[in-house]
Amino acid sequence: MANDSATGPVTELRVLRQDDWDPWYDTLIRAFGGVPESTEERELWNALTEADRSLGAWDGDSCVGTAGAFSFRLSVPGGAVLPVAGVTMVGVSATHRRRGVLTAMMRRQLDDIRSWGEPLAALTASEPAIYGRFGYAAATFGLSAEIDTGRVRLSVPSGTDDVRLRYAAPADVLDGCEAVHARLVPGRPGMLARQPGWERVGLLDPESERDGASPLQCVVAERDGEVTGYARFRVKPGWDVSGHNGTVVLTELAGLDPRTRAALWRFLFGIDLTTTLSVRGRPVDDDWQYLVSDLRRCRPRLRDSLFVRLVDVGAALEARTYQAPVDVVFEVTDDFCPWNAGRWRLTGDAKGASCTRTEDAPELALSVRELGAAYLGGVSLASLAAAGRVRELRGGALSEAAVAFGSAVAPWLPHGF
Ligand SMILES: CC(=O)SCCNC(=O)CCNC(=O)[C@H](O)C(C)(C)COP(=O)(O)OP(=O)(O)OC[C@H]1O[C@@H](n2cnc3c(N)ncnc32)[C@H](O)[C@@H]1OP(=O)(O)O
Asked: How far apart are CA 67 and CA 219, in angstroms?
C-alpha cells in the first residue's frame, strides 16, 4: 500500500474485528459525506456486516479504508443461484485518497473471494468510473420514470378486475411478500436470493429517505388467501394554483402473474390527489411500458445497476446455461486477476455447459470485463464487438456466442447493497 510522509504510512490492511466496527463504519459514513444514519439503519447494517469478509485499512489507530463482501446468492441465466461476493461499504478517507488504498483493498478482496471458491463478485458503484480497472463491468441496468398519470392511460389484461388488493402494514405481510420474492428469483437473472436479515432492508423507512413523503405504505394482491404480489410506496402530497399534484414514489413492486402486476400498476396510477408516479431502478423490460398509452409522457431513462466481475472464468461460465448451442474458444485477458487469462473453450446449451482450458485457436478475443458485462444476458457480445471491445477471429463465432449469452428476460437487481 502506498505511503505518504505528510500523514504517515498506512500500516495495515486487515480483516475487520467486530470490536472495530464503529470506527470502521464511521470512516465509511464520512467517505459518503458524513451525514449520520438513523439508529435503525445503523443497527441493521451492523447486523448485516460480515466482519470476517470485511477489510479495514489502518493508519496507526485510525481507520482510513473500508470494504466488505456480503455472502450473496445471485440468479443467473438458466435459473441457477450462485454464490457471489456482494462487494460493498467501500470507502477511503479523503486524507488518504488516491494513494492506492482502494487498489490494495480490491487486490486483497479478489484474492480472498477466489480462495473462498466464489466464482463471481458483484457491486453497485457510487461512481461508474471506479471499478472497471478491477475487472468489473455494468451487467444490469435500471429503468426510472416519472409517469404523468394525469395523462397516461393504462390498458390492463382481462382478469385484472379479479385481483383483490388491500392495504397492510409492511411488516404484517412480510412473510407473504418474501414468498413472492423467493418465487421470482430463479426466473430473472441478476436477482439475489434473500439471505437472513435482508428482508428487513425493504422495511427500512427512515425519515431522511422520505423527502416530505408519507411513511412507507404497502398494498398486497391476494388470490385464494395467498399473496400473489405487493407494492411498497410513499405518497408525497402536493398542491399548486390548479389543484393537487401529488406524487406516488414507488420503492418496490413484485407480482407472480400479469394480472396481479397490472392490478398493482393500475392502483398506483389511480391514487387520488396524485398526478405523477415516480419509479426507480425497475427492470428495463418492466411490463408497465407495454400497457401505457404514451411512453414519452413517462419520461423513461436508464442507469447502470449491477457490476459483475468474473473471479473464476471457467466456473462462472460453466454455472449458467445458454439459450442456444455454443461452442467457442475465448481468448481472455485479465490484468488484475491473471489466473483467468488465456484460452477457454465454452461448450453449452440450454441444459448445461462446460468451460475448460484449451490450446485450440482462439475464436473471440475479449477481456474479462466484456465477459462480466455479457454474463447475465443484459449486454450483447455483438454490441460490445460493434464498439470494438470484442474481436471475432473465426467467422460466425460472434453471432453464435452473442445469441447464446442472451436472456429472454432482462437481468435486474431489485435493490442496492
Ligand atoms: C461498492 C461500493 O461500495 S461503491 C462506493 C465507493 N466509495 C465512494 O464513492 C466513497 C467516496 N470515495 C472514496 O472513498 C474513494 O475516493 C474511493 C474508494 C472511490 C477511491 O479510493 P482511493 O484509495 O482514492 O483509490 P486508489 O488510490 O486506489 O485509486 C486507484 C485508481 O482508481 C482511480 N480512481 C479512484 N477513485 C476514482 C473515481 N471516483 N473516479 C475515477 N477514478 C477513480 C484513481 O485515480 C487510480 O487510478 P490510477 O491507478 O490510474 O492512478
From this structure: 36
285-297: average pLDDT: 98
- ipTM of the assembly? 0.98
Among candidate residues 25, 70, 72, 131, the one labeled active-site is 131
* Predicted local confidence at residue 225, as pLDDT: 87
Which pTM was predicted?
0.97
Cα–ligand 1 centroid distance for 102 (angstroms): 6
The binding-site residues of ligand 1, defined as CB within 6 angstroms of any ligand atom, are 31-32, 87-92, 97-103, 123, 125-127, 129-130, 133
pLDDT at 11: 73
* Residue showing cell 488504498: 101
Q: Which residue shows C-alpha cell 442472451? A: 406
| Residue 9 confidence (pLDDT) | 54
Whether residues 146 and 291 fall in one domain:
yes
Q: Are residues 228 and 328 in the same domain?
A: no
| 32: annotated active-site residue | no
In tens, the pLDDT along 340-355 reads 999 999 999 999 999 9
Report the atom number in ligand 1 closest to the C-alpha of 99.
27
Specify the pLDDT at position 10: 63
Atom of ligand 1 nearest to the CA of 91: 14
Check whether 103 is labelled as a binding-site residue: yes
Same domain flag for 189 and 318: no
Inside any domain, residue 204: yes
Q: Quick count: other Cβ atoms within 10 Å of Cβ 279?
A: 23
Task: Return the beta strands (E) in 164-291 as ranges.
Answer: 164-167, 217-223, 226-236, 239-240, 243-244, 246-255, 274-282
**What domain range includes position 204?**
142-302
